[in-house]
Amino acid sequence: MSSQSNILSPGARFRRALGDSRPLQIAGAVNANHALLATRAGFQAIYVSGGGVAAGSLGVPDLGISSLSDVLTDVERITNVTDTPLLVDIDTGFGPSAFNVARTIRELEKAGAAAVHIEDQVGAKRCGHRPGKELVSPEEMADRVKAAVDARRDRDFLIGARTDALAGEGLEKTLERVAAYTEAGADFIFAEAVSELSQYGHFAKVSGLPVLANITEFGMTPLWTVEELKNAGVSMILYPLSAFRAANKAAEKVYSAILKDGTQRNVVDIMQTRSELYESIGYYSYEEKLDQLFNSK
To answer: Among 71, 188, 217, 285, which is least packed by CB within 10 angstroms?
Structure first.
């Protein structure tokens, strides 16, 4: 961890990364180990997905089942091992009132998060790429954003406004919501389930804010490239569960192979080696400190 990183708050580090990289690529990390791998790969920002917490940590669907404490556990584990700025999905704010939203923001700031996004679905939310989503009114969502903005102690901590209106209400109504959330004090706009590249430009124009593109696999949004998204006016590109999905598929293959073949020999080539794991988690430096302690006795 650099001395400059120690001086800058997590939010300030996120803002610096956003200023240095347009668009800023943000890698989803479902645990501390993946956060280290993403940092090692060169990502300047990482992400905790609500769906990732639900599926990865709890083994349940992304239907508003997970709690603030579940998210905080994963966030704290990540911020304990890396100072790469962390964006966190807080769903609808983890409670029905402004007080709940305020508590969520303060707890996440204390846990070392750099930014959050809050959405305009009802409390019993659904995955953003599934049908049947129900939204609160633009006014209620604006109140959520205001509560979040008012609660933060560090002015550099970013509050993003996510809208799920596009799939059900269309572009015009979505733009009205974007304008309302911008006026409420949002720092960036996240429109979910975008299906046309040109729509990002409308969000940027109406808000005057950085726009986040959620490039998640097997959903309603095409897997546009960095260059395509940059030309469309996107400032942040999120890959929320790419590594998680790949790890899950590899795990399935390994479990099946061991039962079928009676050995893991045929799948060793798709595994991370022991030395690669030790490099990523800093095992050797810990071991050196142990050696020093024992040699000094």
So the answer is: 285
